[in-house]
Amino acid sequence: MSLLVIGSLALDTIETPFGKAERTLGGSATFISTAASYFTDSVRLVGIVGYDFPESEIEFLKSKKIDISGLEISESKKTFHWHGKYDFDLNTRESLVTELNAFETFDPVISEKFRNSDYVCLGNLHPLIQQKVVKQINNPKLIMCDTMNFWIEGAYDNLLEVLKLVKLLVINDSEARELSKEFNLVAAAKKIMSMGPEIVIVKKGEHGALLITKDIIFSAPAFPLEKVFDPTGAGDTFAGGMMGWLAKTDDISEKNLKLAVIYGSAMASLAVEKFSLDGIRDLSQEKIMKRFIEFKKLTHFEEVNM
Amino acid sequence: MSLLVIGSLALDTIETPFGKAERTLGGSATFISTAASYFTDSVRLVGIVGYDFPESEIEFLKSKKIDISGLEISESKKTFHWHGKYDFDLNTRESLVTELNAFETFDPVISEKFRNSDYVCLGNLHPLIQQKVVKQINNPKLIMCDTMNFWIEGAYDNLLEVLKLVKLLVINDSEARELSKEFNLVAAAKKIMSMGPEIVIVKKGEHGALLITKDIIFSAPAFPLEKVFDPTGAGDTFAGGMMGWLAKTDDISEKNLKLAVIYGSAMASLAVEKFSLDGIRDLSQEKIMKRFIEFKKLTHFEEVNM
Asked: Pairing state of beta strands B93-99 and B80-86?
């Protein structure tokens, strides 16, 4: 099944306690589509970059069989540039520079071909842009949406409109609390479900993720890595792996949603082991499958009566 | 197999956003032995209370078939009294009053019968007292020990001596970080294993627990409750359920340690649904088993290849 990904492409400068990468490939759409590309050859990317975007990275996206016919290249502006610095514990980060550049005027027009996509990932964008994209798609099977505190605080009413249009919201724990005004994450997810999405996935960073529908709660741990190198893009990689699995299997049953969450978690755990996109640039199916099995060992136990 | 429990018995005054309980039964040994009593009839309690300790609570402990021949009742002092108040999110708490009373001079002498216990739980006590207890026990199969930041900061060298004597340390995440001086919890657990314990269990509160040995890592979630009423005693209830299961099955294989962690987590999740000890005062095996199965549904997924 085809998977449409809309979001940012960026050149990131990242500082962690373990090193620094300058103007390295980043952005939500980059992480989502790269992660998804390991599951399906039908990833379609819509985004914008500037005239300074390296040709080698265009080639990289093509090498992942990602359809980049929806990638606009601005001739007058540079690529979105974000410079972030992580604290020693990697849990807090400071944005030192945010230059939107070409991304500032991003106004995605979805091509005729892309309008018939089955699965859709709305990366973290202004809710008005997310809405505009949704209205261009014909009958998708599943729309997933991400958001962030910036939109919850600055475009709350627009975000509520988007939530009515999407089946699956992926959101981090603090944002789920902020959006719902509930501290307890189960209560928060239920409140968010009353706003529209039938499925809510709460990302808890190093504590894993919760999948919540009206019938089930499923808890996936984060992979207990001894060394996390760079958490940039982990949430988008999670979403990409998850949506890639759903598009590949074309099955949104609760049983398969659990698998999607585990594949997403596996991809995210591989991403944070290296800087920026490096952890998922060149993976084998064997390596992903090995991590999947490690998740099983990490969580499964026998059923034994008292 | 017999299970010896040494720790505090207290009368707690607890304030949460949902209510207040005054001078209600608490203390580490109370929670540990009550939780363990659902798994084995061979729980042996060593502790001290004051002349004000209610006769009805003595009867309660007896009703759980807990051997209280090691419970000292001071004729001159009152029972340990702790008064704590939880913040609205239940994650932080303030100790308003700590009156050690009879507990201040607690100097456990283990009876001849109790010295032959197979499994031993050292509740959170001064490491010198923990050491003194260990030296009185003949050839136990497994000693579990708990501790807290107060001893890590105030009796570090004594604590290091205890760690050399115990096979299993149960510790919360912030204390594991403080003890090991490692932020990453896997790295922290490995460092702690180099100090003595072969098995480290890191309690992460609402994020569950990690079981770490030289060969495996196992991650158990906390049960995603929509309403947590009172977290007091959750960690001790976890330890009691876990050690009760190990004593019942007399099996410390890694496979069975995983089950022990799940039974401990199930007991802790039942405990926090009510005030103080109320959540585990009167449970049926059916209710515990039902929660165990819910943990399986919460975490298990099929193995499906990419």
From this structure: antiparallel
Q: Mention every residue, 6+ apart, whose C-beta is less than 8 A from residue B24.
A: B11, B12, B13, B14, B275, B276, B277
Partner-chain residue, chosen from B225, B292, B306, that has the shortest CB–CB distance to A186 = B225
Span A216-266, pLDDT tens digits: 999 999 999 998 889 999 999 999 999 999 999 999 999 999 999 999 999
User: Cβ B224–A183 below 8 Å, yes or no?
Assistant: no
A190 pLDDT exceeds 90?
Answer: yes
pLDDT band at B306 (very low <50, low <70, confident <90, very high): confident
| CA nearest to A185 within chain B | B226
pLDDT of residue A264: 98
Asked if A299's CB is within 8 angstroms of B183's CB, the reply is: no
Instruction: Compare CB distances from B224 to A186, A221, A298 and report the shortest one's residue.
Output: A186
Contact A184 B226 (CB under 8 A): yes
Helix (H), strand (E) counts: chain B:
11, 13
Q: Give the closest-approach CA distance of B217 to chain A in angstroms.
A: 6
Give the pLDDT band of residue A90 (cuts 50, 70, 90).
confident
In one-letter notation, the amino acid at residue A131 is Q
Asked if residues B215 and B190 have their Cβ atoms less than 8 Å apart, the reply is: no
**Half-sphere exposure at residue B115, Cβ-oriented, CA atoms within 13 angstroms:** 9
Asked whether residue B91 carries a pLDDT value surpassing 90, the answer given is: no
pLDDT given at position A105: 92
Measured in angstroms, the CA of A114 and the nearest CA of chain B are apart by: 25
- In the predicted structure, residue A92 carries a pLDDT above the cut 90: no
Q: How far is A87 from chain B (nearest CA, A)?
A: 12
Burial A219-240 (b: 16+ CB within 10 A, else e): bbbbbbeeebbbbbbbbbbbbb
- pLDDT band at residue B88 under the 50/70/90 scheme: confident
Residues near A168 by Cβ (< 8 Å), separated by ≥ 6?
A142, A143, A144, A145, A197, A198, A199, A200, A201
| Residues whose CB falls within 8 Å of the CB of residue B168, separated by 6 or more in sequence, listed in order | B142, B143, B144, B145, B197, B198, B199, B200, B201
A54-to-A9, A11, A76, B89 alpha-carbon distances in Å: 12, 10, 15, 47
The mean pLDDT of A180-188, rounded to a whole number, is 95
The stretch A47-58 carries a mean pLDDT of 98
**Interchain proximity B306–A39, CB inside 8 Å:** yes
Interface pTM, i.e. ipTM: 0.92
- Asked if A259 lies within 8 A of B187 by C-beta distance, the reply is no
List of chain B residues whose C-beta atoms are within 8 Å of the C-beta of residue A38: 306
CB contact under 8 A, A218 and B301: yes
Contacts of B282 (CB under 8 A, 6+ apart): none
Answer yes or no: are the C-beta atoms of B37 and B283 closer than 8 Å: no
pLDDT band of residue B299 (cuts 50, 70, 90) is: very high
* CA–CA gap between residue A88 and residue A93 (Å, rounded): 9
Q: Report how far residue A252's alpha carbon sits from residue A257's, in angstroms, rounded to the nearest whole number.
A: 6
3-state class of B92 per DSSP?
coil
Q: Which residues pair with B302 in a beta bridge?
A: none
Our separate counts of H helices and E strands in chain A read 11, 13
Asked whether the beta carbons of residue A301 and residue B262 sit closer than 8 angstroms, the reply is yes
